[in-house]
């Protein structure tokens, strides 16, 4: 398993998580963003 590094890790892929990622980009953040969400099956 390889290690991955991100500048920001957002835990929760619901509206709040996606809004956080959106606001970071809207505010000019250019680093990497990972959005961690539970998988629905």
Task: Describe this structure in a few short sentences.
With about 40 residues, this protein is α+β, with helices and mostly antiparallel strands.
H/E element order:
EHE
Question: What is the count of β-strands?
Answer: 2
Helix/strand class: alpha+beta
User: How much of the polypeptide forms β-strand, as a percent range?
Assistant: 15-25%
Structure description:
The protein has one domain (1-41). The longest helix is centred in the middle third of the chain and has 12 residues, at 15-26. By secondary structure, it is of the alpha+beta class. Helix content is 29%, strand content 20%. The chain has a two-stranded parallel sheet with strand order 1-2.
Relevant terms:
41 residues, alpha+beta, 1 helix
What are the SSEs and their pairings?
Layout: E1 8-11, H1 15-26, E2 33-36
